[in-house]
């Protein structure tokens, strides 16, 4: 399948993302920054303070802390809620980032036991949450990335929030793609976050920064998270390469999420018209969806590679094999608008 | 003492460092980098691979891994050696970075028990090491920063190495300032590192990069450290802002360490000529020394602030109070050469 990745890399435009992850992304963000702007220093200084305050306001929380990664931020959030409630059990979706992408950091570093809620192919339900035993914290991911970016309704969120409050369960938001979810809810970030005790957001997904995350919540929670950030070795002398680029790309793209989502809806509809091709969700609720092809990975990969070569449009660099079909992810960003209508028509013609 | 820091910040040149920690440091490092150079991605890609291989070679180790911080790298190193030996005790100097600057991360995240070796005001001795109980790993810091950058002789290092090998104790090098130590030993980095099982080096001290660290050792050790890096949330999608600046400033300054040290020796001698002022070590062995003033912190701080205002030369922005005296640190870098002989003469005249 190297050919699939190779042909993808050689395409001039791609269905997904904001363009290639290249050094230019950093250089653009710093073009207008003065050379004598001071660095942050171990979590102190105007650069980091201003961005943390801005994000606390955006998310409607008392306080916010910049972290190099969401992995670090979220493990720490769960640890703090466990310590506060003197429990060591949390609950999350079976395809939660902590469960499948972090080499069991939560278990290895904190001996916290996660309960996996519901089925991995769909969102967890209120009933499943109500059936949980006594836990410190429930983590909800909005949107649920590994199933194509599905979202519960706002009413469902409110019901989950009320249940958790009643039971004394802390509710944490994995908002890696929170900004991407706002068009669906037609709400401000702070209105969603008001339902959660703590929130993490990422700056290199829909926002398209270089790396970095914000963890927000009550002041005491954030203060404790800074102690853990130091313990983890995340309290770097300088985080400004990530902070300033996060801020730059946040400003550039925060208001484009509805546009990305509309393109995703239109694009998914065209894929769903093809034989043996379908998306989940069928109608995307954010800028992303999963794209499935009936058939063997080798054969589908070869077909996509050929289409990428012939159209110059990157569809994907990888396929994951499942029962009789294979899948990939599409996530709309700035590059999509660089694809001409003709290129797209050609792409779909070749799929037929 | 705000006045001390304020006047320090307003100076045009400083005794210590490579200039102010400003955004220009990043921009300079990337000036010659092409916009279309690809990012590293979760520890993969040419950018990170090349730098890791280069550093493995420089340090004479089989393998090397780039980390966002030394805090993360060293806790992980000790954890791996503990797991391998099935012990949970390590040993280090009472003023080791892990003991005083990491909010007890090693204990909180790994339940590893450190034994503090020797007296905090001097280097540990071979006899003290020989008296240690059965431990997984001994950490040596070269130079010992918190006592002014002292170094054991190479013969002492060899004796410690032999003892540890005989006893099955892993020897880890905290080489945050390893490059700064090489002029004293008149050896290559690899010759020092050959005495250690694993090594950490930093890129924002004498090298003057933005942040970041290398952990080097046997291949299996490094492979396991990558799993822990993922667990810690240190396996960022992009570390290139740190990697490329580390490489840039490493090339710029690696051969200047002897020059920095010679300046430190000359400068310390001048301070030692003053009444009620002395340095530790009396004759620096690296580019750094601690600078002590007989008297109260307020009074000395006021005096230094005045001298900083009058000469435009930054001596320090802080003082630490001890018994009847107060102290600060001087660490020579590129800025020192920008101070004119006249400025320096004036500075010492004003101290008299």
UniProtKB/TrEMBL annotation, chains A, B:
It comes from Exiguobacterium sp. (strain ATCC BAA-1283 / AT1b). The keyword Lyase applies. Belongs to the threonine aldolase family. Pfam families: Beta_elim_lyase (PF01212). Residues 40-289 form the Aromatic amino acid beta-eliminating lyase/threonine aldolase domain. Keywords: Lyase, Pyridoxal phosphate. InterPro entries: ArAA_b-elim_lyase/Thr_aldolase, PyrdxlP-dep_Trfase, PyrdxlP-dep_Trfase_major, PyrdxlP-dep_Trfase_small. The keyword Lyase applies. This is Aromatic amino acid beta-eliminating lyase/threonine aldolase. GO terms for cellular component: cytosol. The lineage of its organism: Bacteria, Bacillati, Bacillota, Bacilli, Bacillales.
């Amino acid at each position: 399948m190297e050919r699939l990745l190779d042909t993808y890399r050689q395409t001039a435009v791609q269905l997904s993302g904001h363009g290639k992850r290249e050094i230019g992304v950093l250089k653009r963000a710093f073009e207008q920054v003065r050379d004598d702007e001071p660095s942050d220093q171990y979590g102190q200084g105007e650069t980091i303070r201003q961005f943390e305050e801005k994000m606390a306001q955006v998310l409607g929380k008392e306080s916010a802390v910049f972290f190099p990664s969401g992995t670090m931020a979220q493990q720490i959030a769960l640890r703090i809620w466990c310590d506060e409630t003197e429990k060591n059990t949390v609950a999350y979706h079976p395809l939660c980032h902590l469960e499948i992408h972090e080499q069991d950091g939560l278990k290895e570093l904190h001996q916290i036991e996660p309960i996996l809620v519901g089925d991995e192919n769909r969102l967890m339900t209120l009933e499943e949450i109500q059936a949980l035993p006594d836990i410190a914290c429930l983590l909800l991911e909005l949107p649920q990335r590994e199933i194509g970016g599905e979202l519960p309704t706002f009413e469902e969120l409110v019901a989950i929030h009320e249940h958790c409050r009643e039971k004394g369960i802390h509710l944490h938001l994995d908002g890696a793609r929170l900004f991407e979810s706002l068009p669906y809810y037609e709400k401000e970030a702070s209105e969603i976050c008001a339902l959660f005790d703590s929130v993490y957001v990422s700056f290199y997904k829909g926002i398209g920064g270089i790396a970095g995350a914000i963890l927000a919540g009550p002041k005491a929670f954030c203060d404790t998270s800074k102690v853990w950030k130091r313990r983890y070795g995340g309290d770097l002398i300088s985080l400004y390469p990530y902070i300033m680029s996060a801020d730059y790309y946040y400003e550039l793209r925060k208001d484009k999420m509805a546009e990305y989502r509309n393109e995703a809806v239109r694009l998914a509809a065209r894929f769903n018209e093809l034989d043996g091709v379908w998306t989940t969700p069928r109608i995307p609720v954010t800028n992303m969806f999963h794209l499935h092809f009936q058939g063997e990975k080798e054969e589908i990969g070869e077909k996509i590679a050929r289409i990428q070569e012939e159209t110059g449009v990157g569809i994907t660099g990888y396929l994951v094999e499942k029962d009789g079909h294979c899948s990939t992810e599409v996530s709309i960003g700035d590059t999509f608008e660089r694809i001409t209508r003709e290129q797209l028509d050609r792409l779909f013609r070749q799929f037929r």
